[in-house]
TrEMBL record:
One of its GO terms (cellular component) is cytoplasm. One of its GO terms (biological process) is protein stabilization. This is BAG family molecular chaperone regulator 2-like. It comes from Tripterygium wilfordii. Residues 142-169 form a coiled coil. GO terms for molecular function: adenyl-nucleotide exchange factor activity; protein-folding chaperone binding. The keyword Chaperone applies. Keywords: Chaperone, Coiled coil. The keyword Nucleotidyltransferase does not apply. Residues 1-25 are annotated as: Disordered. Residues 13-24 have a biased composition (Low complexity). Pfam families: BAG, ubiquitin. It comes from the Eukaryota.
Length: 258
C-alpha cells in the first residue's frame, strides 16, 4: 500500500515539474509579427543561428549603383557595414531609405519586406556632409598658408644673403653706406608684416614662427652692424693722373709763295 502511494507521489511530482518547465519555456519565448500577419518566435541575436538565404540588393547612392549580397535575416545596420567597403562612407554617416522611410540599424530586412533584387536608397547624413565641407575648407586654408609662407621664405633667403655680405664687408674693415643697412632693415620688416598677416595653424604655424625668428635675428644683426660700421674709417682712394703738355714740341715752318 505504501509503495503504491510512493509511485503516485512520484508521478505527480514529475507532472508538476514538466508543467513548470513548460510554463518557464513559454515565458522565455518572445514573439514577432512576420509580413502577412504571421506570428512567429522572435529570432535571437546568437551568431551561431543557421543563416537564411542570400539576397542580392541593389543600392542607389546618388548617380552610383551598387549590388551587394546579404543574408535575408540581416539587419540594415549590417547592410551599412557592407556598403562602407563599397562606398568608403562610414556606417554612422549612412542613411538607408526603403519604401520612402529611413530604416533603423536594428530593423531586419525580411521583416520590412526586403526581397531578392530589392532596391534601397543610400544617402549621406547631412551632418557628415557639413563636417566634410568644413574639413575641405580647413585643408584649403592650410595649403594656401603653406604657399604664402614658401614664397616669403624665398625672399627672406635673398635678404639674409645681403646681410651676410654686409657683415663680411664690415668685418674686413670696409665701411658700408648707412643707407644700405637702413634699407635692408626696412625690407626685412616688410617681410615680418607679411608673415603676421598669414593665418596659419598646425605645421604651417610652425613654419611661420620659424621664418619670423629668422627675420628678427637678421634685424638684430643689422642693428649691431650699424654700430660697428660707424666705427670703420672711410678709405679715401686717390688716383695719380698723368699730365700732358698741350703745346707742340716743334713749331711748323710755313713757306710763302710769290
Amino acid at each position: 500500500m505504501m509503495k503504491k502511494r510512493s509511485n503516485a507521489r512520484g508521478r505527480m511530482s514529475e507532472a508538476a515539474t514538466n508543467t513548470t518547465s513548460s510554463a518557464s519555456i513559454e515565458e522565455d519565448v518572445e514573439w514577432e509579427m512576420r509580413p502577412g500577419g504571421m506570428l512567429v518566435q522572435k529570432r535571437s541575436d546568437n551568431k551561431t543561428e543557421i543563416p537564411g538565404p542570400k539576397f542580392r540588393i541593389r543600392v542607389a547612392y546618388g548617380a552610383l549603383r551598387y549590388e551587394i549580397f546579404v543574408n535575408s535575416q540581416a539587419t540594415f545596420g549590417e547592410v551599412k557595414k557592407l556598403l562602407t567597403a563599397e562606398t568608403g562612407l562610414q556606417a554612422g554617416d549612412q542613411r538607408i531609405v526603403y519604401r520612402g522611410k529611413e530604416r533603423e540599424n536594428g530593423e531586419y530586412l525580411d521583416m520590412c519586406g526586403v526581397k531578392d533584387r530589392t532596391k534601397l536608397t543610400l544617402i549621406e547624413d547631412p551632418a557628415s556632409i557639413e563636417r566634410r565641407c568644413i574639413e575641405m575648407r580647413r585643408n584649403s586654408k592650410i595649403q594656401s598658408a603653406h604657399r604664402a609662407i614658401s614664397d616669403l621664405t624665398i625672399d627672406i633667403d635673398k635678404l639674409i644673403e645681403q646681410v651676410s655680405a654686409i657683415e663680411k664687408s664690415i668685418s674686413n674693415g670696409v665701411k658700408v653706406p648707412e643707407v644700405q643697412i637702413t634699407t635692408l632693415i626696412e625690407m626685412l620688416m616688410r617681410q615680418a608684416i607679411k608673415l603676421d598677416s598669414i593665418s596659419a595653424e598646425g605645421e604651417a604655424s610652425s613654419l611661420k614662427t620659424l621664418q619670423g625668428k629668422r627675420v628678427q635675428k637678421c634685424v638684430e644683426t643689422l642693428d649691431v652692424l650699424k654700430i660697428s660700421n660707424a666705427r670703420v674709417k672711410a678709405v679715401v682712394v686717390t688716383t695719380k693722373w698723368e699730365t700732358f703738355d698741350p703745346s707742340p714740341t716743334t713749331v711748323p715752318q710755313w713757306e710763302f709763295f710769290d
